[in-house]
Amino acid sequence: xxxxxxxxxxxxxxxRYDKGLRILTLGRLDEVYDRLASHIExxxxxxxxxxxxxxxxxxxxxxxxxxxxxxxNPQMLAIAQKRADExxxxxxxxxxxxxxxxxxSEDAESYDAVMSGLCFSELTEGEMSYALKEVRRxxxxxGLLLIADEVRPEGLGRRIIHGVIRSPLVIIAYLITQTTTxxxxxxxxxxxxxxxxxxxxxxxxxxxFVELVARRPGSGxx
Amino acid sequence: xxxxxxxAVNIIGTILRFFPWRGKAGLIxxxxxxxxxxxxxxxxxxxxxERVRGALQGMDAYxxxxxxxxxxxxxxxxxxxxxxxxxxxxxxxxxxxxxxDHREVILPQLAATGIEARVVEKMTGWKVVWGPVYAxxxxxxxxSKMDKTEQMREVAFPWTQRIEMATAWAFPISxxxxxxxxxxxxxxxxxxxxxVWGLSLLIYLSFPLYGRWLGSGRGxxxxxxxxxxxxxxxxxxxxxxCILAGGxxxxxxxxxxxxxxxxxxxxxxxxxxxxxxxxxxxxEDRLLKVALDEQKCRGVGYxxxxxxxxxxxxxxxxxxxxMRRAERCVQCGACVVQCPFDALYFRSxxxxxxxxxxxxxxKLNLMGRRLVK
Lengths: 222, 373
Hints:
The complex is a heterodimer. Chain A is an alpha/beta fold. Chain A is built from eight helices and seven strands; from the N terminus they run αααβαβαββαβααββ. In chain A, strands 3-2-1-4-5-7-6 form a seven-stranded mixed beta sheet, sandwiched between helices. In chain A, helix 6 links the parallel strand 4 and strand 5. In chain A, helix 2 runs antiparallel to helix 7 and helix 3 crosses helix 4. Chain A is globular, with a radius of gyration of 17 Å. In chain A, about 45% of the residues are buried. By secondary structure, chain B is α/β, with parallel strands linked by helices. Helix content of chain B is about 45%, strand content about 10%. Chain B has 16 helices and ten strands. In chain B, helix 1 crosses helix 2, helix 10 crosses helix 13 and helix 12 runs antiparallel to helix 13. The longest helix of chain B is centred in the middle third of the chain and has 26 residues. Chain B is globular, with a radius of gyration of 23 Å. The N and C termini of chain B lie far apart (about 50 Å). At the A-B interface, helix 1, helix 5 and helix 6 of A face helix 4 of B.
């Protein structure tokens, strides 16, 4: 019977995705996403990178924003679409099967905010640098970049504790979602390198998970 | 130093063959590449990366490592972990566009189950060429102006690969067995390990003797049959040993019978999927048949270029493809995904048609099912 249960769990990987991530983040994810979405205002144009099953996209749409969610996984997008329909938010949500390397199709200075929940940790180094440059390009002056993601803790001691705590969670999450993530290195430095100003960072005690708000400088400042 | 690394990666990669192992994605320079050097793509499965680099020694080329989540090319492409987006991404974000003047990229042929050449071309302007199945043929392939011989297109299962697969199974099974026996039956550990490695090597090395009977859907029942026979043989051996040794204690026979049954069960559970010649019996797609819509076929031969079993023959005069060797098909779906006229599709045993859009969009998951809602 247990094998059967395991098989069922694996079969429905995309629909279990949120659950797997909740395990990986020890249940903090919902409040984190709520806090991030609280920066979004009515009528704004918002881009959600790696929207997955729509957790951030729907929160932003519920605040009254027009949201474009992009993700490379069509099955996740199908779930996101279904949720948007159910929440009666479909008219404010556009979902696209698209990776961060394909952001070239978006107009410069066209978004008030770019959100990204647990997406950067799934990117390669090259993708991450590319994505951050593109984010700066598509953001309007004064536009916000809102990130919630796993980062590599500073200092060896913390890194070891983090590794020990994380390894069983990674295995469980992998069994449920068949994906795993690798914590991002030097996130704030890399954001500032592309010319965005990091305004606010909140990190957990271990320094392994951050919420971050960065702003593209207005035309008058540097 | 690089030799030490090569050997170490090969050993670890072989004994832990069934676990993903991520290498760093991005651009690798092979030799001293220039602005017209060939651009090749591989996956970020660490073992593959090491072997491709080894095979390319002596060439000047750019190797793009795409993010396949640490899984090999064939499995990742078929399972939706190496997609159009990953190829587009490595072309756009690795810096290769600034390093060469041409726009032609060689993809591993086995990636054709998941990567749509047309989408990559449309999104990036890079022309996709399907390279050979094995990295060792790349040098010859680029020298012969991208002309692929029939042999370069086909998957093979030589004794080296068979030993690798035997090891890939024997190592985790023996580890598991040793852990359990440590608690229950310590003196049985050594003979237990010999049993695991012996049976595993026997099954894989003797593959050429029985491999041909595994084809066309009967494979799984044959495997069950063969493994029962093998188990009966092991049991007969145990019983006769016991009688010859003059023993009247049947305890060890029962115990070893049980252990060998479990070992054979593990070895048999995905035997077909452990060979490149057959679809895994755990995958629903194994029951499908590729069908050709003759009205739509124009004989451009993409199917012939990507089929890893050389099932197709293209009649260039009549402009028609034919599946002359359909019985060899492993239902990988590469031909269905690549056909520019949607002339190929899958047909299920009950006659249902599975169109190319479905195969392109919904990939096989770990349990071998496509999540079509």
